[in-house]
Amino acid sequence: MQKHVIITGASRGIGFETAKYLASKNTLVTAIARSVSGLRELKAFNNENIFTLQLDITDPKSSHAIINHLNKSELYINGILHNAGLLINKPFMELSDADWESQFRVNLLSPARLTRNLLDRFSDNSHILNIGSMGGYQGSSKFSGLSAYSATKGGLGILTECLAAELESKNISANCLCLGAVQTEMLEQAFPGFKAPIQANSMAEYIGDFLLYGHKFYNGQILPVTIGNPT
Ligand SMILES: NC(=O)c1ccc[n+]([C@@H]2O[C@H](COP(=O)([O-])OP(=O)(O)OC[C@H]3O[C@@H](n4cnc5c(N)ncnc54)[C@H](OP(=O)(O)O)[C@@H]3O)[C@@H](O)[C@H]2O)c1
């Protein structure tokens, strides 16, 4: 049977490429982002396998819009990729309360809220895959300007472990992939001028396959996915 996955942050970068990759492998994809241009491009790439929803995941009403879409299209969820992310690059002493709040809202609170609100639409043996970062992986190298961002990603890892324990009885798995540098707009914001060893389309293949099959081998794991960031 054709699987259906939800990908947040699908208008560009890693989420965009993962939506394309999975759709080309005959998976149904619900692609979510705020800006329409990338979503339009996804529809043009594969109208049959890609649904697009223009939503801000920090808006509490976004869960209702997703549930309406699932009802209308008679879909259950085999996997969700919590990929949407915000990175504010500022020295610790310059980070305002609003910066901290928006970091946590996008990177941690929204994935938690969406997971809770969509939980009864998950199929048996489904997979919650959180996209963390090497910056939020315990013991990794840390970098100036990324304290709030890295803290949210550390929190996302711990949320993953808690969800895996709590949802095991429902046969829902949860894992977190902590990515090293991948060439995207966000990387340019974090490390201007740095050339990553991995392109978004290449990382997308790994993430797409992991979303579909990784939970056969892993549950509750926080996994580093890096060749360039020493731990
Ligand atoms: N690139 C790297 O080197 C790297 C390394 C470690 C971890 N990561 C993680 O990988 C994930 C993807 O990163 P990327 O590099 O592909 O970043 P990106 O190119 O900046 O893309 C971020 C995506 O998130 C979406 N997004 C942001 N806020 C949103 C919101 N409130 N509601 C809905 N969508 C939202 C953006 O779409 P709209 O603006 O259209 O909403 C965009 O599609 C992130 O979680 C990031 O932290 C990346």
Structure description:
Helix 1 crosses helix 7, helix 3 runs parallel beside helix 4 and helix 4 (97-118) runs parallel beside helix 5. Helix content is 42%, strand content 22%. The chain has 231 residues and is an alpha/beta fold. The protein has a single domain (4-225), classed as NAD(P)-binding Rossmann-like Domain (Rossmann fold), CATH 3.40.50. It has helices at residues 13-24, 36-45, 62-73, 97-118, 147-167, 185-190, 200-213; strands at 4-8, 28-33, 50-54, 77-82, 122-133, 172-179, 182-183, 198-199, 222-225. The strands form two sheets. A seven-stranded parallel sheet has the order 3-2-1-4-5-6-9, with helices on both faces. A two-stranded parallel ribbon has the order 7-8. The site of NADP nicotinamide-adenine-dinucleotide phosphate has 30 residues, from helix 1, strand 2, strand 5 and helix 6.
Give keywords.
231 residues, alpha/beta, Rossmann fold, 7-stranded parallel sheet, two-stranded parallel ribbon, 42% helix, binds NADP nicotinamide-adenine-dinucleotide phosphate
Brief write-up:
The protein is α/β, with parallel strands linked by helices. It is built from seven helices and nine strands. The protein has a single domain, classed as NAD(P)-binding Rossmann-like Domain (Rossmann fold), CATH 3.40.50.
Task: Please write out the topology.
Layout: E1 4-8, H1 13-24, E2 28-33, H2 36-45, E3 50-54, H3 62-73, E4 77-82, H4 97-118, E5 122-133, H5 147-167, E6 172-179, E7 182-183, H6 185-190, E8 198-199, H7 200-213, E9 222-225
Parallel strand pairs: 1-2, 1-4, 2-3, 4-5, 5-6, 6-9, 7-8
Helix pairs in contact: 1-7, 3-4, 4-5
The structure holds NADP nicotinamide-adenine-dinucleotide phosphate.
